[in-house]
Write a structure and sequence with these properties.
The protein is mainly β and 350 residues long. The longest helix has 22 residues. Strand 7 and strand 8 form a beta hairpin. The chain contains three helices and 21 strands. It is globular, with a radius of gyration of 21 Å.
Length: 350
């Protein structure tokens, strides 16, 4: 028998940048696979429609990228991913060091900027940070450049980017090795995705003289309506999440809009010993009886922000801490924790 006790829980969020890591993959190009999109105990047909609407808004951003002149671009499918790639003139970027953002101009030996946008092949939403290694080989089979490519906040749609070295104009083979990330996944059916090493091999022809003189990032800045539409689509999903939660809401703090939901304990896919296993969670078990979901959004555009290190502290109405501070594990399109607390029918953000 479950007792619902009305009380108040305060959730405090702390943020810092965290870079996920994974294993390199090997092998030939991966065959395209369609991830599961099926109604389940955690995803109704309507909720899957909301996810698809998010993906549609991302598609509009990637379509815009593919239409730009002065770049080399294209799309391919590999494994459970839809990948958009763009080569443009070298770009500068901000780097965070000791809590200070510093602008870095492109180095003198940079020949091009490689952009990657990796989407779920089923609903077309951006997949949160992956470990991706790129290898560029020229027509003679010599390696021009290879490295890990970092996930980044971008003006239009978030993705991966870095400046690369070319060995002159001509034909190249771009190889991408994508490792499965260990973050948790919801849903016993739809959550069983992105668990395999994936390789994409792409043939491109690059002529640096054809690159636009204006940085692609500046062109993105001029089309913020597309980014805002993606934010609106994600907000619609959040509104649906609030309806099924015991309690939830959002508030804007500085550059962030913080959304949360408190529910009874749920199952999730857990990564251990290089394998994913679905963990069943009884909502009144001795270990955990609550589930907290958090989404951090760009306050300006409303877009979801991945790759943050989120700490949640749950406290009871009288101010007593009823659960230890926990690192939220990055899940697909959110941050999740399980916790043991006395009651969680009501919650508020401060």
């Amino acid at each position: 028998m479950r007792r619902n006790v009305l009380t108040c829980v305060t959730i405090i969020f702390l943020f810092s940048i965290n870079v996920c890591s994974g294993q390199q993959s090997s092998g030939m190009s991966s065959m395209p696979m369609m991830p599961v999109m099926a109604a389940s105990n955690e995803a109704t047909k309507d909720q899957l429609t909301f996810a698809g609407a998010e993906g549609d808004s991302v598609d509009k951003c990637t379509d815009w990228l593919l239409q730009q002149k002065g770049v080399v671009s294209g799309q391919t499918n590999a494994g459970e991913y839809k990948i958009t790639y763009v080569f443009s003139r070298p770009e500068g970027w901000y780097e965070l060091s000791n809590d200070v953002l510093t602008w870095r101009e492109p180095s003198s030996n940079a020949d091009a900027h490689l952009w990657l946008f990796v989407q779920d092949a089923a609903d077309h939403r951006i997949v949160p940070p992956l470990s991706i290694k790129y290898t560029l080989k020229n027509a003679q089979g010599n390696v021009s450049d290879e490295n890990e490519i970092a996930y980044a906040w971008m003006p239009l749609v978030n993705g991966y980017g870095t400046n690369v070295k070319l060995s002159g104009n001509g034909n190249y083979t771009l190889r991408l090795d994508i490792a499965p990330m260990p973050y948790r996944r919801h849903d016993p059916y739809n959550g069983d995705r992105f668990t395999h090493n994936t390789t994409a091999v792409i043939n491109v022809s690059v002529d640096k003289s054809q690159f636009s003189k204006q940085p692609l990032s500046e062109l993105m800045e001029a089309h913020q309506k597309l980014a805002e539409n993606a934010g609106k689509a994600f907000h619609n999903t959040l509104e649906e999440m609030y309806k099924q939660a015991n309690d939830g809401g959002d508030t804007t703090i500085g550059d962030y809009t913080i959304a949360f939901a408190v529910e009874y304990a749920e199952g999730y896919w857990h990564y251990e010993n290089s394998k994913f296993r679905y963990m069943q969670e009884n909502d009144m078990s001795g270990k955990t009886n609550a589930h907290v979901e958090v989404a951090a959004l760009d306050a300006k555009s409303g877009r979801f922000l991945d790759n943050l290190d989120v700490t949640a502290t749950l406290k009871s109405e009288d101010g007593k801490q009823s659960a230890q501070e926990m690192k939220c594990l990055c899940g697909i399109h959110g941050y999740i924790i399980t916790a043991k607390i006395g009651a969680y029918r009501k919650a508020e953000l401060i």
